Fold this sequence. Notes:
The chain is mostly helical. The protein has twelve helices and no strands.
Amino acid sequence: MPSGSYLSVRKRVREIVVVAKPGDRLSRAFDVFIVALILSNVAAMIVQSIQRVGAAIPVFFTLFEWFSVAVFSAEYILRVWSCVEEPEYRRPVLGRLRFAMTPLALIDLLAVLPFYLPYVSVDLRMLRVLRVMRIMRLAKLGRYSESLQVLWRVIAGKKEQLISTVFILLILLVIASCLMYDAEQEAQPDRFSSIPAAMWWAVATLTTVGYGDVYPVTVVGRLMGSVIAILGIAMFALPTGILGAGFVEEMDRRRRPPLCPHCGKEIRNSGGANQ
């Protein structure tokens, strides 16, 4: 059995690494430090992409990357180690595994994983992609931003409707590609050589981007293109309405008084004026 001092240290570590509670200055300082380091990493990645700057001070960027990875790795290890203080992750092994599979824990892992993978036997062509994955450090801000947490709750609450909308959009994409392929394949065999090739036009049209590099030239193709473009506007209005309704519901829920866990009635402040 772990000693009392071990348990107290683990509990204090958990209090520090989670979002700070009012009055906990050390946890608050930790949150501010991590957020500042995340923003600094994103800024460094952007500035380093400027070849003149990256070539002028390469040692600075290398040392800063090492320092950042060391801090983020230690943070990840401490979060996994101390997660058993939470009731849902109480079991030492399975609890930690469950915590490691949560979205925020996976983001923490992806924030440092690209640094370590080059030292493992992997396809070198993947290293460029893995370097881009450093942007995942920006996603770590979701733990500290109330606005991002609200957005996540809205998306999670409306996931069924959003999935249905995406499914309908995919069906429309396939139908539009097939129709345009049949209408334009003979007139433009180089642009509409296959249904997958026609999907590029369908995506650009349904998203109302309209790059203009591929477009119908036949009368039937132009008529169908007009209808598909209008349908694309209507389809992309659906998720906007779903998310808008979700935000209204979330804001209404946040303004609503809390419910009593025993009787289910609203808890109202008894001080001040009579309710």
